Each structure stands twice: as structure tokens, then as C-alpha cells.
Amino acid sequence: MKEKSNEPEAAEPEPTTEVLFLCSYEGCGKTFIDAGALRKHSHIHGERQYVCHYEGCGKVIFLI
């Protein structure tokens, strides 16, 4: 039979959430943990958007 050693086992480091992707659009500064989320977010800064011209509406739809 193996005897247990009295040495404490090395504790595994706790996982950390690191922000790896930063939106480079001027004045935004939002951060994301994966490239896909940043890519999806970047569409809101694009010129491909539709503004409703119906009187009094003015809603904006971002086209992908």
C-alpha cells in the first residue's frame, strides 16, 4: 500500500476571465473575451444601417 505524503498538494490556480479583445472604434472601449463577440459588436459601428424615415419614428436597424 502507498502511504500518503505529508506534503500539501499544489493548488491549481483558479480560472480567470481575461479580456482579450478591445473595440478599437473611437470612443467605444467595450471589451470582449472572444473574437466572435467583438466581430458581432463591430457591426454597430458600421455604415450599414437603416434609419426609418417614417414620420416620428427614427429607429435604427443595423444590417449585417
UniProtKB/TrEMBL annotation:
GO MF, any single term: zinc ion binding
Alphabetical UniProt keywords: Metal-binding, Repeat, Zinc, Zinc-finger
Domain C2H2-type, residue spans: 21-50
GO cellular component, one term: PcG protein complex
SUPFAM superfamilies on file: beta-beta-alpha zinc fingers
Database matches in InterPro entries: Znf_C2H2_sf, Znf_C2H2_type
PANTHER family assigned: TRANSCRIPTIONAL REPRESSOR PROTEIN YY (PTHR14003), ZINC FINGER TRANSCRIPTION FACTOR YY1 (PTHR14003:SF1)
Name this polypeptide is given: C2H2-type domain-containing protein
